Amino acid sequence: MIVAERYHDISCGHRVVGHEGKCRFLHGHNYRIHFTVAAHELDEIGRVVDFSVIKSALCEWLEENFDHKFLIWEKDELLTQLQEIAGDSLVIVPFNPTAEHLARYLVETVGPEQLKAYPVQLISCKIEETAKCSATYSL
Ligand SMILES: [Zn+2]
User: Fold this and answer.
1) Backbone φ, ψ for residue 22 (5° rounding)
2) 3-138: which CATH topology?
3) pLDDT digits 0-9 by tens, 22-38
4) 23 included as an active-site residue
5) Sheet harboring 27-38: ordered strands across?
6) Does the annotation mark 129 as catalytic?
7) Which residues are in the CB-under-5-Å shell of ion ligand 1?
8) pTM, whole model, 2 decimals?
9) Catalytic residue among 5, 19, 68, 108
10) Residues 28-85 pLDDT 10s
11) Needs which cofactor (predicted)?
């Protein structure tokens, strides 16, 4: 299989509800998010898709929706209090915002919507919270 990959860096806050250690606190990461897309066949000039499509459809989605914002689970007990002080900088998500859940959300929800006009599919996403720690979700 031939795939095309591109990564994008964003800064984002979150907390992990129920975490046994310090990740339960409000904190953030300089995330590096890797997208892998695949197609049934290469286009007439030999590409899975132009890399600019990954940028415009997926990297720019991250810029508009997650960059410099705070991800919070809709069931987080701090949601109401944080909404009062953080307002538009909060992004309410339907999952506890671990790297694993973020990767799955991008592949299952964001990818199909953002790439629907193109003959490619987001098949995998790797989320690096640090240079040492990452999670990957693949179809
Ligand atoms: Zn974290």
Assistant:
1) -75, -10
2) Tetrahydropterin Synthase; Chain A (3.30.479)
3) 999 999 999 999 999 99
4) yes
5) 90-93, 69-73, 3-14, 27-38, 121-128, 134-138
6) yes
7) 23
8) 0.95
9) 68
10) 999 999 999 999 999 999 999 999 999 999 999 999 999 999 999 999 999 999 999 9
11) Zn(2+)
